[in-house]
Amino acid sequence: MSVMTMKHFFWHVLTDIDFQLPLYLVSTGYWVNQPTVVRKDGYKAYQWIQCFDGQGILEIEGKSMTLSKGQGMLLFPEVPHRYYPVKEPWTVQWVEFNGHFAGPLLQSMEFNCSMVLFMTKPDLVEARINEINHLYSIRNQISSYDGSHLLYGLLMDLFRYTSTSDTRSNQEQLEQLKPVIDYIQQHFGQPLTLQDLANQLGVTPQYTCVLFQQTLGTRPFAYINQYRILKAKEFLQLSPDLEINHISAKVGFESPSYFIKLFKRSEGITPNHFRSVYKPT
Q1: Which residues is 58 bridged to in the sheet?
Q2: What pTM was computed for the model?
Q3: For the TFIIE beta domain, which residue ranges apply (predicted)?
Q4: What pairs with residue 116 in β-bridges?
């Protein structure tokens, strides 16, 4: 016998302000026992649907994916799909959203299509959704700006605490890199080798490169150079009488000319020009 289905939802009355925002909420709510949904033409907005109990199946683009506790499904607009419970009660919460920046933002997070995601910290994502629901429950209509702000926070949590497989999230990978990031920040003014970095993690130099690429999208020495440029900008602003070659040495560059070349490539201007533009008032 099917468990009784109950739902509670809040619709956001959309105004011209919403349509001008890069992200806006459309609706939010939950099902105690999510019933079968069939959308032959897809749906009009983006949806995040998070599972809290039971189990369901999502059928989309020729694939069938299970959705259990600790998982959620991100659905893109206008993509035909069907989902239904297989272990009841299939309890879910959802957030429906849209906005002209929704697609580009999701793509920048490598969410390029509808997918099922694993959550390493589902409680944090649940808390974000509960905050949205709570605001709706105490007000008939929350501010469009408040809704957009909360929605952005939710999407950032999905980026930090989810993955497409039951493996480490981006946030966990970043935490694994923390010892070597801390080492770089403490020793940026000294010569650094790839082996130095690998020693902080207890892994091979090759795997250190893989971790940097997967987590930060860059190579270790590219990250080191960017951090050194960042510290150089601080010296340029806070020490107006310090010569460029001294700054170059303090941030770990043996060659002042190489430092100037990298600085200009990064900032678009020379160190001296930067100093003149951003000198303290």
Answers
A1: 65, 83
A2: 0.64
A3: 162-245
A4: 73
**What does the block give as tokens for 84?**
């239904």
State the alpha helices, DSSP H only, in the chain.
16-20, 102-108, 122-138, 144-161, 170-187, 194-201, 205-216, 220-238, 244-250, 256-267, 271-277
Q: What is the mean pLDDT of residues 190-216?
A: 88
pLDDT in tens, 70-120: 899 999 999 999 999 999 899 999 999 999 999 999 999 989 999 999 888
8 Å CB contact between 85 and 55: yes
- Rounded CA gap, 263 and 273, in Å? 11
Q: Which of 27-31, 76-80, 142-146 has the lowest mean pLDDT?
A: 142-146
Structure tokens at 10: 């809040």
3-state secondary structure of 47: strand
What's the token pair of residue 265?
């490539």
- Give the span between the Cα atoms of 178 and 156, in whole angstroms: 20
Going by C-alpha positions, the residue among 160, 175, 74 that lies closest to residue 120 is 160
Total residue length of the chain: 281
Q: Are 40 and 80 in contact (CB under 8 A)?
A: yes
Does 191 sit behind a cis peptide bond, omega within 30 degrees of 0 on the bond before it?
Answer: no
For residue range 174-202, list pLDDT tens digits in order. 777 889 999 999 999 999 999 999 999 88
- Separation of alpha carbons 166 and 228, rounded Å: 36
By three-state DSSP, how is residue 85 classified? strand
Q: Which residue has the tokens 């974000």?
A: 128
Cα separation, 5 vs 36, in Å, equals 11
